[in-house]
Structure formats: C-alpha cells, structure tokens
C-alpha cells in the first residue's frame, strides 16, 4: 500500500482551526526587517544584472531572437495560466523532453497543478485517484513533495474552499507561479538569460504580500517606487 493515504474525515477536522489574522506592529515588523542581513556585494550584483540585461537588450538587437521560439514558450505559459496543464506538459515535451526529465521539482509542480484544476472543476474522485497514482509515488521519494501534496488534498476537506487555510492554491496566482517556473526552465534550456533579477524580485514581493495579507495585518509596501512601509488598517 502506498505510504500516502487520504482520509477525508481526518482532513475535515482542519475546519475547526481558527483562521483569525495575526497583527504585527510596525515596531515588530521593522525589527524583523533590520535583522535581515543583505551583503553589499549581493546588492551590487543585483543592480549590475539589471543594468547589463537592459543595455544588452537595447543595444544587441535581441528583439530579433527566433520568433518561433518565443511563440512556443508563450503558448506553454498561456496553457498553464488557463489551467490546461496537460496541454502545457505536451508542449514542453515537444520543445525539449529533457526539460521535465531533468527537473523533477518542476514536473511535480505541473502535476500538482493538474490536481488543483481537477479540484477546481469539482472532480473529487478523479483528483484523489490522480494523487494516489501519479503524485503519491513521488511524495514517497521526497518529503517536501509529500507535504505539498497533503496541502493540496486538504482542499477536499472543505465545502467553502475560499475560507480554508490552503485556499491560496486555488488562486490565479498559483497558476501564475507555476507558469513562471515553467517559463524560466524553458529559457534556461534554450541558453537564454532569464528576466533581470530585480523586476522578478519586485514581482515576488507583491505576490508574497498578497499571500501574507490573508494571514496577518502588518506594515506593507504599497508604493514600490517609494519602498515606504504603510500601516495596514485593521
């Protein structure tokens, strides 16, 4: 028997958990930020990466890169964003089968997204069968995969998934996260430089704040250009 087994009755007990937001004061938040140590050379490297990437794009004619390659990559990304994960996997394999063969984490996340889409469409039995046949064996090989799988299956324990502790898995942001991961892997396989790190970090900041908003009230950065903390309204 697989090490992975889902008991909906046990998962239903999660519904009794309190989901009230934690309040973090400005003093507490600023102390946490001050405790983070970022090396100056890492900051310099980040800025240089952005400058070099932008100058190269403007001066080297990278706009003339193979349009077919861009079209194929964007088709994969759009397929994931629309929830057509099977189609996305097929397109990735058509581009380069080694992308998924050599990246088990990426393949797991795509399979996880397939299960999320089944749950989104109310196909509970199909989702459980898919989890046990396709995802559980990978979870047995990797503990982090198993933990992610269990979080995903926990969606089935709630009638009102919008208010469950793992509701973020059904957000469009989860699709975007998976699509971005696939896009980066394709770029790497094609020996292209990924997007400059600075814009990616800013996008990550926005995404993380949106996720944290569901769990806590804290001083957040609303104006990225000013990078100033603003107290949240409780």
TrEMBL record:
<dbReference type="InterPro" id="IPR024964">
    <property type="entry name" value="CTLH/CRA"/>
</dbReference>
<feature type="domain" description="CTLH">
    <location>
        <begin position="69"/>
        <end position="126"/>
    </location>
</feature>
<dbReference type="Pfam" id="PF10607">
    <property type="entry name" value="CTLH"/>
</dbReference>
<dbReference type="InterPro" id="IPR050618">
    <property type="entry name" value="Ubq-SigPath_Reg"/>
</dbReference>
<dbReference type="InterPro" id="IPR013144">
    <property type="entry name" value="CRA_dom"/>
</dbReference>
<protein>
    <recommendedName>
        <fullName>CTLH domain-containing protein</fullName>
    </recommendedName>
</protein>
<dbReference type="InterPro" id="IPR006595">
    <property type="entry name" value="CTLH_C"/>
</dbReference>
